[in-house]
Amino acid sequence: KEFAQRGQKPLKLHVERIVSSTNDVLRSYLKQGPLEAGETLVAEAQTDGRGRRGKRWYSPYASSLYLSMYWPLEQGMAAAMGLSIVAGYAVADAARQLGIADVRLKWPNDVLVKGKKLSGILIELEGQAVDNAHAIIGIGVNINLPTMVEEYVDQPWTDLQTELGQRVPRNLWVATLLATLSDALEEFKQQGLSPFVQRWLAYDNLHDRAVTLLMGQTTIHGYAKGIAEDGALLVEVEGEVKRYHAGEVSLRYD
Ligand code: BTN
């Protein structure tokens, strides 16, 4: 219904019960034949869910959304940084549409509510040649996690049921998230990142906050100053605003 109202072509959706990781299974589909832009796999549980930086993403049955979307990068790998920003914006905006007013983004795309993680995004890029560069955009949104998850998760987290104070219709979340994400990706393809910079900044959790950046062995202290037109993080260090790219730094609040 969401898609019909927006006049969009429906997305192809695969639904599985238990998979290793939706990112890995979607990638295996790709080996069997081409996928359509926006083709998505949703699963009820993952046995080997993956987070960023090689971490595990705890994925109990029916407690979260676990999904991965295939997206060709016609702009080639140069689009990678922007993609990360666009995906974060789309997840935050879907959460806002469904009633989470205080959703925020921690650069590039951690989705937080009151400093606690609501959703994580793992984007994997493949194909070096411009004509087959593509991304697998993996998104996990906590819906109603069991409390035992504390044992597995090493950062403060929250879920939709806690934030909204009621049971959450998962299908509505999937539909809203996929519609918002595919609209945003299409707009990014046509117009690049510039329409998204201000929209992303409306959710910026870091602005003017003291941050520590870890770059290999080097630690940099500064103040977050939003994002540049290419999606790089701007940080004021000793009076000078510098740019940092995702992948090159890891970020902590002070
Ligand atoms: C993060 O570390 O914040 C990223 C977490 C990404 C988790 C999602 S769940 C669906 C998809 N499949 C995976 O194995 N990981 C992503």
From TrEMBL:
Q: What reaction does this catalyse?
A: biotin + L-lysyl-[protein] + ATP = N(6)-biotinyl-L-lysyl-[protein] + AMP + diphosphate + H(+)
Q: Where is coiled-coil annotated?
A: none
The segment(s) forming the BPL/LPL catalytic domain are 1-189
Q: What class of enzyme is it?
A: ligase
Residues given in the record as biotin binding sites: 21-23, 46, 50-52, 117
Q: Name one GO molecular function term.
A: ATP binding
The alphabetical list of record keywords is: ATP-binding, Biotin, DNA-binding, Ligase, Nucleotide-binding, Repressor, Transcription, Transcription regulation
Gene Ontology annotations of biological process type? regulation of DNA-templated transcription
Q: What is its EC number?
A: 6.3.4.15
Q: Which domain of life is it from?
A: Bacteria
Q: Which GO terms describe its cellular component?
A: cytoplasm
Which family does the record claim for this protein?
Answer: Belongs to the biotin--protein ligase family.
Q: What does this protein do?
A: Acts both as a biotin--[acetyl-CoA-carboxylase] ligase and a biotin-operon repressor. In the presence of ATP, BirA activates biotin to form the BirA-biotinyl-5'-adenylate (BirA-bio-5'-AMP or holoBirA) complex. HoloBirA can either transfer the biotinyl moiety to the biotin carboxyl carrier protein (BCCP) subunit of acetyl-CoA carboxylase, or bind to the biotin operator site and inhibit transcription of the operon.
Q: What is this protein called?
A: Bifunctional ligase/repressor BirA
Span within the parent record: 75 to 328 of 330
